[in-house]
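Q: I have 273 residues here and want to know how they pack in 3D. Can you give me a structure?
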Amino acid sequence: MKTDSQFLIDIDRILEAKAGAKAKYVPRFVVSYLKRIVHQDEINGFLRSVEGKVGVDFLEEGMKFLDTKLDVHGLENLPDDGRLCTFVSNHPLGGQDGVALGYLLGKHYDGRIKYLVNDLLMNLKGLAPLFIPINKTGSQAKDFPLMVEAGFNSDCHIIMFPAGLCSRRHNGVIRDLEWKKTFIVKSVQHQRDIVPIHFEGRNSDFFYNLANVCKALGIKFNIAMLYLADEMFKNRHKTFRVTIGKPIPWQTFDKSRTPTQWAAYVKESVYKL
């Protein structure tokens, strides 16, 4: 079966969509470099090989392709009494951690999971059934609250990386940026307990240095994001430790702290796991 080309990575088409007529002025060596760092050929080869796989089956193939293994602790903390939960995790890698947690939780809950993700990932057709797309920079920005609401209204568990971006290095320490409060507000509103998860891993020194240089120069565009696919390939053939904490009842998040303060509290809980 031939893979629908619209779901393959196509740097030429992306540049044309983002830059319009100006795309033709981008030097070819730059285009070639972009194709190389996003591993266009390798990823498209994988996507062609898994045509027809969707949801957790697609994630399982992704785990095999990346040769990712998990050392899981705290499986007994996963609720099995029918209540819907919000699973929140630190985001050290930006690639494998999303695939791995989706696979782990998707297997456990028979595919009844939903991600809140950047809409770029919607191009992975096999994962589309598990995604609630978020585009905070484009035309969908106004629909962001509706997408979040749709996720929390569903009969699926929610997986979120509240930092939004993957972890950065500050003063030699690799940690998430500030966790956004959405997961607190919506979990309380929909009476979902929050399950903290810690994912152990890191990207390359190059990645962290690039992110810090861009920040120091005041560059708004997330250039480091372009290298996440390359970081994913650097992290192939590894075993990652995943620690699942005890569920935090939604009633915990009362008026004694603001939602932002409670988000920081859960973040600290994750890093103590």
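Q: Anything worth noting?
A: The longest strand covers residues 193-199. Residues 134 and 140 are 7 Å apart (CA to CA).
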